[in-house]
């Protein structure tokens, strides 16, 4: 302390160090608010981006699946949860013949136990490159030719590189492409043509019996694109009326999106309420703590006045103390949120079970600045009343009250 100039900032720093337990408690309070504000805003924005991305680029209007597996198809698409369910491939041709259906494309789902790229099971999705209109639009680079036998396309979160190879069930596959970030289960899935998917199913027989290995005429779902000018609900009902007896059920993509949107709205509302409550709580607690501590330091402040400190100097000292508390708390809270939210974004996405797409760097920077300002203002705002009250008091009065 002696080696540093005795200015307002250094006195404020010394005061915080002297009351370290109180200071740490206040810093922690601000940090919790900053963490919640930054982390919650990033979470809300990521969910909003994922929802918008899903709505714009879902591709299929209707998903035809085996009866009873409506939830499974949503889990596979939204969260990438390994799922296996099948019906006869003839369903694709049947659905294609329904009036109002424009395009159909079959898909085949196979779950792995593990892979060289990942420490968790993966969803393998077989698709028909010739008819597909759901997966290939997500590819980050257009392929020179359709995905051939033995080739795979990986989701954006798969830890592997294009041009390298991955192994499933003791078979190696060449990575020829990568999908853009989708915010859906596609990010943690691997894609291949139907022939390759059936080869994988046969290779998996050494570990566990697989229906596709016994019957190559099985698929998991049919993606349906309706013709322009037709009503999706009418087409879905037509498919059900014609083929429900064959164990075919349908999921209307827009209904699925609306359900997700409702869940998202409830979650974001909860986050906003939590942020508002924490901000009010932080300001209220800091006002009480600053009022109590400032009253207990009246003798200290009167000594500063006797030594020549002006009223404005005392006010600046108190505001500097609260500003330092806010600065440290804000930095700790935001940095902690960054260390948790960014590295574990894939886990958070799967935990929430909602489309999750991280905002751009520009948006993240804007969120960080907003969170910093909102958190930083808590301390000075809470202390301004006490600071003005102490600064406006006369020396004699302050000395008597501090005795």
TrEMBL record:
Chain ranges of the MacB-like periplasmic core domain: 30-240
Its record classes its membrane topology as:
Multi-pass membrane protein
Q: Give the UniProt keywords, A-Z.
A: Cell membrane, Membrane, Transmembrane, Transmembrane helix
Which subcellular locations apply to this protein? Cell membrane
Q: What is this protein called?
A: ABC transporter permease
One Gene Ontology molecular-function label: transmembrane transporter activity
Per the UniProt record, the source organism is Clostridium aminobutyricum
Start and end of every ABC3 transporter permease C-terminal domain?
A: 276-383
**Segments passing through the bilayer:** 270-296, 317-344, 364-388
